[in-house]
Specification:
- By secondary structure, the protein is an all-alpha fold.
- The protein is built from four helices and no strands.
- Helix 3 packs antiparallel against helix 4.
Length: about 120
Amino acid sequence: MVLALATPLGAALNLFIDLAFLPVDGAQALTPGSAALMTAISGGLMCGFCVLIYLITQHIYAKDPALGRRLLIPALMAWYLPDSLGSFAAGAWFNVAMNTGLLALFLIPLLQTRAAAAQTG
């Protein structure tokens, strides 16, 4: 998101924004000023959140899956709920669907390892 402000990746971000507000018609795009500032801030926060997820996975979840799940699931829900509710309130209902798919990519493996641990434990 941050790179989209100063590189050709801006076209991809504009497509994502337009997709979130279906239909894809070119009516929505990132605008300069306050929207660009919020994109920079939220992009930086998302980058930090992704690094944190990676580090928890590598250094905690790999050694103690139960502790890793206890850290990751609340953090994922703390992203998903306000992002999805805010997207819906903003009229970007399709972003809720995209968020749900992304959440599933994280939660399904976490819940599967919990179920597998319960069966062996």
